[in-house]
Design goal:
This protein is α/β, with parallel strands linked by helices. It is about 40% helix and about 15% strand. Strands 5-6-7-8-9-10 form a six-stranded parallel beta sheet. A five-stranded antiparallel beta sheet has the order 1-11-12-13-14, with no helix packed on it.
């Protein structure tokens, strides 16, 4: 090794792969989308004005390119594994396969699900409010069938639910029963905003330790399962602080669709925790990153090389913005040789420039459809 190479090696450090415990890969094209038609007066109103319009405009092509762009941006930030939650009410069948294929081509592992919901009536119009006692809609049934089809095909997945306030009791029970039969957990938004504060009471009869409880900001009781904390999203939506250290659940970190830079999420989670508890240290949130890796044990054998000599030290990483990824190697089943999916800061299996260009074209089509809704 010459002097220049030795010096360069001194500026690098290696960590295991990062894991995103709660993503919405379909949101990668949300940037630049049309402005909402009015000012939201509540969290459900914001969903209706913005995110449910995006969901309804998705087709299989835009789902694929959004997932591929999201996967590229994830791996360039050292994230090798993603737990994804998807919704596209007018393109349900085949949506999970499109996400899985896009991520696989980039080299990122994904465990996805379709978020079943009763918010779309059988005539394809939007419910203003879903009654817990209403019957399951055709859309919710199709969403659960998409989860089942994906998992039974041998792909990694979970059974998805949107949020309790958009699901009938029948749909919640059906999702729980399906998850049990498939030996997987349910991935569900829970009490993200005060409007869903009754969620825990409705989910409690069904929840198990295999469930992924997302947000939990307004939980009024303990539910079994891992708690996916999404600090940036919670702050952006103004729904409050989840105070995860006050919960007995194992805490994992997600981005809720705002990118997949998990070290950036780690830093934000830490400063928000410090605002809540000035005695907290970076080691607490570093533990959440480690917990998240348990969702994909393979990630522990992945190697992310950083252009910073102390990326493996929580106290350094918590206060060092802009750490960049030099190389990502993922462990492959049945092989002693890792697969290199990022080298010298760019993807090796796919052309990053081409993906960004095609994703931009798909985003333009998506945004035009949103304008027509």
């Amino acid at each position: 090794m010459n002097a220049i190479s030795a010096h360069r090696a001194d500026m690098l450090s290696v960590t295991p792969g990062l894991v995103n415990a709660h993503h919405h890969l379909y949101s990668a094209m949300a940037r630049g989308m049309p402005a909402s038609r009015g000012v939201a007066t509540s969290f459900p109103h914001m969903l209706e004005l913005v995110w449910w319009r995006l969901d309804a405009a998705l087709d299989l092509d835009t789902i694929y390119w959004s997932a591929k762009l999201g996967a590229v941006e994830a791996v360039l930030a050292g994230t090798t594994c993603i737990v994804d939650h998807h919704e596209s009410p007018r393109a349900i069948e085949g949506s999970l396969e499109a996400i899985d294929r896009a991520c696989s081509e980039v080299g990122v592992r994904v465990r996805t699900c379709y978020g079943a919901t009763d918010r779309w009536r059988d005539d394809d119009t939007l419910h203003q409010k879903v009654s817990p006692l209403s019957p399951m809609t055709k859309g919710a049934k199709r969403g659960l069938e998409e989860c089942e089809r994906h998992i039974r095909s041998g792909k990694a997945g979970m059974v998805g639910l949107h949020a309790a306030f958009t699901c009938s009791n029948e749909t919640i029970a059906a999702a729980a029963d399906l998850a049990t039969s498939l030996n997987v957990g349910v991935h569900v938004h829970v009490a993200e905003a005060i409007d869903d504060s009754q969620a825990a009471a409705r989910l409690a009869p069904h929840a198990t330790d295999e469930w992924l409880i997302v947000h939990g900001v307004h939980l009024d009781r303990t539910l079994p399962g891992r708690l996916a904390h999404n600090p940036r999203s919670n702050m952006n939506n103004g729904v409050g602080y989840a105070a995860p250290t006050t919960r007995p659940n194992t805490v994992v970190l997600g981005s809720d669709g705002i990118g997949s830079d998990m070290y950036e999420e780690f830093r934000l989670a830490y400063v928000r925790l410090r605002e809540f508890d000035q005695t907290a240290t970076p080691d607490v949130v570093s533990g959440w990153l480690d917990n998240t890796r348990e969702l994909f044990p393979q990630s522990k054998d992945d190697r992310v090389t950083w252009r910073y000599p102390h990326a493996d030290d929580a106290w350094h990483a918590a206060f060092t913005t802009g750490m960049r990824v030099e190389r990502v190697e993922t462990a492959t089943d049945g092989s002693s040789s890792p697969r290199i999916i990022v080298d010298r800061g760019t993807t090796t299996l796919v052309d990053e420039v081409e993906i960004r260009a095609k994703a931009a074209e798909a985003a333009a089509r998506l945004h035009r459809r949103m304008e027509d809704l």
